[in-house]
Amino acid sequence: MLTKRIIACMDVRDGHVVKGVQFQQLRHAGDPAELAARYNVEGIDEVVILDITATLESRRALAETIHAVAHRIFLPLTVGGGIRSEDDAAAAVDAGADKVSLNTAALKNPGLITTLARRYGSQAVIVAIDAKRRGDGFAVYVRSGTADAARDAVEWAREAESQGAGEILLTSMDRDGTLSGFDCEMTAAVADAVNIPVIASGGAGTVEHFCEVFTRGHADAGLAASIFHSGSVGVAELKHYLREKAIPVRL
Amino acid sequence: MIALIDYGAGNLTSVRKALTALGADYATPASPGDLRRFSALIVPGVGNFAATAALVGPWRDEIAAAVRAGTPLFGICLGMQWLFEGSDEAPDVPGLGVLSGRVTRLQGDAEERLKIPHVGWNGLAFRSRAAAGDHTALPSRLLSGLNTGAHVYFTHSYAAPVTDACVAATTHAETFAAVVERANVFGVQFHPEKSSDAGLQIIRNFLEVSGGLPAVASRAEAGC
């Protein structure tokens, strides 16, 4: 049986892991390669590197960081942040990424999803959606959460799938960094609308939050950053808890 | 020396990384004629079966000749699918055909939320000779040191059927071949280079079979 995946995200700026609250107030949280190696030992299923300032500062994800992480772990590695073209994606893949995550660029040019899916396969193309609740819907934001994209998350996820995306990485901006739990309603709304895996992100604070997002939220994978960095929730502890709750995990 | 065959289907960075970490002696042959210099072959690959069209012709002929001569061959993901007769993903492109059967598209199960592509960690079910009343696992050199139920990382939409060559199967709505092994032909549908310790063990097992580990490392292993 396919297990639910636990994914550690490292928001990286200038080669260091940083973590903010609701996309603001960044603080340092360590060296990416060291952290990734620790997660591998603890039993993490995947690692994501997001170069969080890349889009704003027009920088590409740092190849050195990708390379350093890729040489420490034998796990799927996703890289996002500042991937605006086929060349940017190729640079990330050449540095050791197995998948690339598109956000702002995919909304600007959905054809980029298709181009990359043809070149690397859909399994290598993740579309990241940052969204906030608004009325009955979920408003999509771009440029690291600073610009309203005037799109709804469910509708955009469907289009991303039709363009060739292999997975959706859905982040709740309302919950990001709050440790108050995933937005299960938003996650379920997107997961029920597409036939590709959905990775839930934003708000994980306890082991119970993961259980909720895998059951009520219909998520295929749960992603977190700060709780794994700080060790307030251990990966092994989380997986044992989920197994007790009859949620399939890799132990 | 192991030949890592690069035919342009996906990125070989992670396979190279794993081989290097395990201390394997390997190189990427520039032309099919070079294959005779190698003691074992690895055919990796990610993506569409159509990409294996690059192997049709001299590469396929030389690889087939090497297999007939007893050279160990290890197909990974698309490389394993290529060991079969062909794939519905690209019906006009022939596989190597050293294993019988055709690769078909996984169907998934929308009601059970079993999505395609099949992406993530899934378990290996070691196969036994249950039909003959023997429930011990089939002998497998590739799976040495692993236990049934071990989790490995998959990402694919097509899969090979469970045949006599299958030593471990995986189920995602339907059951398909996850590990194949027949004489000197080996293959895995998943990505051992992304499957953490279990995956590295499988690659190490192939290196042992093929003599691709440096002599010092082999002696150290034997001494344990």
SSE blueprint:
The complex is a heterodimer of chains A (251) and B (224).
Chain A: E1 5-13, E2 16-21, E3 24-30, H1 32-42, E4 46-51, H2 63-70, E5 77-80, H3 86-95, E6 99-102, H4 104-108, H5 111-120, E7 125-134, E8 137-142, E9 147-152, H6 153-163, E10 167-172, H7 184-191, E11 198-201, H8 207-215, E12 221-224, H9 226-230, H10 235-244
Helix pairs in contact in A: 1-2, 8-10
Chain B: E1 2-4, H1 13-21, E2 26-27, E3 40-43, H2 58-68, E4 73-76, H3 78-81, E5 86-87, E6 102-105, E7 118-123, E8 125-126, E9 128-129, E10 134-137, E11 151-156, E12 158-159, E13 166-172, E14 174-182, E15 185-188, H4 196-210, H5 215-223
Structure description:
The complex is a heterodimer of chains A (251) and B (224). With 251 residues, chain A is of the alpha/beta class. Chain A has a single domain, classed as TIM Barrel, CATH 3.20.20.70. Chain A has 10 helices and 12 strands. Chain A has helices spanning 32-42, 63-70, 86-95, 104-108, 111-120, 153-163, 184-191, 207-215, 226-230, 235-244, and strands at residues 5-13, 16-21, 24-30, 46-51, 77-80, 99-102, 125-134, 137-142, 147-152, 167-172, 198-201, 221-224. An 8-stranded parallel β-barrel of chain A has the order 1-4-5-6-7-10-11-12, surrounded by 7 helices. Chain B has 224 residues and is of the alpha/beta class. Chain B has one domain: 3-Layer(aba) Sandwich (Rossmann fold), CATH 3.40.50. Chain B is globular. The two termini of chain B are 24 Å apart. The A-B interface holds A 1-3, 5, 40, 45, 70-71, 73-76, 93-96, 98, 120-124, 166-167, 195-197, 218, 220-221, 250 and B 10-11, 13-14, 17-18, 21, 46-48, 108, 110, 113-123, 151, 153, 155-156, 171-172, 191, 193-197, 199-200.
